[in-house]
Specification:
CATH architecture of the largest domain: Alpha-Beta Barrel
Largest sheet: 8 strands, parallel, barrel
Oligomer: single chain
Shape: globular
CATH class of the largest domain: Alpha Beta
Low-confidence stretches: none
Helix content: 40-55%
Number of strands: 16
Distance between the termini: 33 Å
CATH superfamily of the largest domain: Queuine tRNA-ribosyltransferase-like
CATH topology of the largest domain: TIM Barrel
Strand content: 15-25%
Number of helices: 15
Number of domains: 2
Strand order of the largest sheet: 4-5-6-10-11-12-13-14
Mean pLDDT: 96
Radius of gyration: 20 Å
């Protein structure tokens, strides 16, 4: 259940009550694709750096170790030793982005595994069953991720199919939650708004899926090549037509500046691989912008990555040491930078929530964007 605590213009501050705890929103979900954050970060680390929600991937976990294995191990929470909320995406994005050969039909999608090439079928019911086996807190509906750009004719047909798939997801989720032996029989379902960069199609789809009384609603198919201005325009167009008493999730976004802009437009949930991926390559976020820790100027720099940062990395290690670790190809380099970047994102969300609570979000946003000077 979503409880709106405060709203000013479109900016929302809320609480989302789930079977695995209450999520304070706006929130950034830390992406652990295969039930682990890439960069040797454990579930215990996630608690230390302020993570509220962990996100795992249906497609990847279905391929390995297999969702049946996870179910037999007691579900994803037990398997990865994480007692806070978990969101699993439906696998739709990976099917459309990773599978080289795929066939989209009304029943679902036939595709080849990117690992060993074996033929796999996934449709709405299969995605729900996999996510039910994983036992996540929140399951995402199975949708078609539309290539960008796409013709208006194709987008209309695709969105209609995504709506039909969503109806099937809801029926199957209700059935699975009613069965004895289901890992999490209170699993929640979020629907996904699609429509490419066509505002009117997006709005009509939002109106349609809003009638289904789902647990939450996502805006999908963005951050896939369109400009930031296009993305912000679509968010502004769609959010007013989604239920205001349910959480709104912007999928796969993004940069800290994107998050601030989307919060201003009414978004509650975010996720992105960017902070962990950047960290693994030595690109770290700071209060004054993003830096590349491998630059020569940090060779003798005994400062932490970011002065005043409370993350475990900045409390104990210098830029010079972390740069040395990267140059020496030590795994610890990746771990320290991923920890820092995820802490940066989780702390950013905490500051955003405090700013909304204190009625100074607009000033906070402008201050941050100015401090980052376009580098983040």
């Amino acid at each position: 259940m979503y409880k709106l605590l405060k709203k000013k213009n479109s900016v929302r501050r809320g609480e989302f009550h789930t079977p695995h705890g209450t999520i304070q929103t706006p929130v950034f979900m830390n992406v652990g694709t295969l039930a682990a954050i890439k960069g040797a970060v454990s579930s215990m680390d996630l608690k230390e750096i302020g993570c509220q929600v962990e996100l795992s991937n249906t497609y990847h976990l279905h391929l390995r170790p297999g969702d049946e294995v996870v179910r037999k191990m007691g579900g994803l929470h037990k398997f990865m030793n994480w007692d806070r909320p978990i969101l699993t995406d439906s696998g739709g994005f990976q099917v459309f982005s990773l599978a080289k050969l795929r066939q989209i039909k009304e029943e679902g999608v036939y595709f080849n595994s990117h690992i060993d090439g074996r033929r796999i079928f996934m449709g709405p019911e299969e995605s729900m069953r996999i996510q039910s086996n994983l036992g996540s807190t929140i399951a995402m509906a199975f949708d078609e991720c539309i290539p960008n750009p796409s013709t208006r004719e194709y987008v209309l047909k695709s969105v209609d199919r995504t709506t039909r798939w969503l109806e099937r997801c809801k029926i199957e989720m209700d059935r699975l939650n009613s069965l004895e032996g289901t890992v999490n029989n209170k699993q929640m379902l979020f629907g996904i708004n699609q429509g490419g960069t066509y505002d009117d199609i997006r709005i009509e789809h939002a109106k349609t899926i809003s009638k289904m009384n789902l647990d939450g609603y996502a805006i999908g198919g963005l951050a896939v090549g369109e400009t930031h201005e296009e993305m912000y325009r679509i968010i502004s167009s769609v959010v007013p037509y989604l239920p205001q008493d349910k959480p709104i999730y912007l999928m796969g976004v993004g940069l800290p500046s994107n998050i601030l802009e989307a919060v201003e437009r009414g978004v509650d949930f975010f996720d992105c691989v960017l902070p962990a991926r950047n960290g693994r390559h030595g690109h770290v976020f700071t209060s004054t912008g993003k830096i590349n820790i491998m630059n020569a100027k940090y060779e003798l720099d005994d400062n932490p990555i970011d002065k005043g940062c409370g993350c475990p990395t900045c409390q104990h290690y210098s830029r010079a040491y972390i740069r040395h670790l990267f140059k020496a190809k030590e795994m610890l380099a990746m771990r320290l930078c991923v920890l820092h970047n995820l802490y940066f994102y989780n702390k950013l969300m905490e500051e955003i929530r405090n700013a909304i609570d204190g009625d100074y979000f607009e000033d906070y946003k402008e201050e941050k964007l100015h401090a980052w000077s376009g580098n983040v």
